[in-house]
Here is the input.
Amino acid sequence: MIRLEDVHKSFGDLEVLKGINLHVAEGEKLVIIGPSGSGKSTLIRCMNYLEEPTSGKVYIHNHLMSHKRRAFINKIHSSMVFQQFNLYPHLTVLDNLTLAPIKLKKVPRKEAEEIAMMYLKRVGLEEKANVYPTTLSGGQQQRIAIARALTMQNRVIFFDEPTSALDPEMVQEVLDVMIELSHEKNFTMVVVTHEMGFAREVADRIIFVDGGNILEEGTPEHFFTNPTNERTKAFLSKIIR
Amino acid sequence: MDALTGSLKMITNGSVITYILKGLGFTIGIAFFAVVLGIIIGTILALVRNYCNKGAAKIFKYIAIAYIEVFRNTPLMLWIFIGLVFFPSIEFPTEFTKLFELSRTEMAVLFKAIIALVLFTSSVIAEIVRGGLNSISKGQFEAAYSQGFNLPQTLLFIIIPQTFKNIVPTLLSQVITTVKDTSYIANIAVAELMGRTFQLIQISPRYTGFSTQNVSDVFVLCGLACVMYFAVNFTISCVVRKMQKPKKIKLPAKIEEV
Here is the structure.
C-alpha cells in the first residue's frame, strides 16, 4: 500500500531522514514512535508529500509520488489528521467535511452532506454540523478533523500526533474514535503518537525512529516485553511509567 | 457678517449645489471604480508575488514586485502628472461623455487621472492582501494539500476567503483613503468634489453679488466639501463595522462535559 525506498530528507544542513525503507501493507495499523526531533513527523509527512524527500521514492498504491502528482494521489488514496487539527475556520463543520468531496470528487452536495452527517454521527458530533470549528473544544475539533479525513473515503489515513495538542482530559475521546476506526480491516492507518497504551492496543506493528533511522520494529508484544535496541529500551523506560 | 450671508446664499443657489453634488457623485464613482479594480489587480499581484516561485513563472513574481514597490513608494500626485503627459488619450464617443456632462478632452484627462489612481491603489491593496495571505497558518495549506487540493484550488477555496475576512478593517481604511485620494485629481481636471470646490471658490463673486472674493466663500465652500467627504467616509466605516459584527453564536445551555 505504502512503500518508501531509501528516503532521505534534509532541511539545509540538517539531515532528518537518513535513508528510510518501509513497507506498509494494506489494512495494516502502523504506529511510529520516537523522541521529539527524531524525524518521525517528517517521515509521516513524506508519505503524502507535505514534505518532499530530498532523495528516495515514495509509492502509494503503486503510484510513484511526485510534486506534480501529489494532489491527485492524495485525493484518491489518503487523508491526514494533524496535531493542530487544521480545520478551516471560515467554514461550518459540515462545510469543512463536504468541501473536498464536492470540489474535488464532484460528489453532489446532497450526497456529500449525507456522507458527512454519517461520519459526524460516527465521531459523536452530529449536533455540531452547523457551528464553526472555533467554538468547539480541542477534542471535539480533532474528532471533526477525523470525520473530515473519513469523508474523503480514502483507504489510508495518516495521524500526525493527533492527541499531542489536546488537554489531558480530551485525549481519550479522540483515542476512542481512533480505536474504533482501527477495527475496520480495510483501513490502513499510520499513526505517529506518544500514547503507548493506544499503540499497544491498536498497532499491528510498531517502528521506533531516532536520528532519522528506523532503529527497531516489531509487534507490540515484542516492543513492550523485550525490546532489543538500547536506544529503544531507554526511550520506553522513560515514557512508560 | 454680510459677507458670510452672501456666501451662504451662494450654496443655496440651485445650480451651484447641483454642480457640487454632481462633483460628489464623481468622487464616489471614481473611488468605487478605483477600489474595485484595485482589489482585483491588487489580489492578483499579491498572489503572483507570493506564490509564483517556480521556474519560468518567477519572472511574473519579479514584475509584481517591481510594480508594487514602484507605485507604493512614489506619490500619487506624480503619477497623475506623468499620466497626463504620457498615458494614451482615449477618444471617447461624444454620446458617452455627454452622460457625464464633460467634454471629450475633459473626459480623456479624467480617464488618465483615474488610471493613475488605479495603479497606485492596486499597489497599496496588493500589500494589504499579501499581509493577509501571510497571516494564514501553514497548517491550512497542509490540510488542503493532504485532502488533494492543488495550490490554485487551495488559494481559491481556503486561503483567499480567510484572507479577505481578516483584512476587512485594513481594506476599509484604504477605501477611505482612496475616497480622499480622488481629490488629487483636482490638480488636472475639474470633475470631482475637490476640483469643483476650487473652481467655485475662484468664480464665487459671480454668485455672491459682491465684486470681490471673500474669506467666507472659502469657508463656506470648503466647509461644504468637508461635510460631504466626512459624510461619505463615515457612512462607509459605519456600514462595514456593522457588517463586521460577529454572527451571534448560539451557546449551549450548559457547557458540555465530554
Observations:
- The first strand of chain A starts at residue 2 and ends at 11.
- The mean pLDDT of chain A is 92.
- Strands of chain A lie at 2-11, 14-24, 29-33, 55-60, 63-64, 78-81, 156-160, 188-192, 205-210, 213-218.
- Residues 49 and 66 of chain A are 8 Å apart (CA to CA).
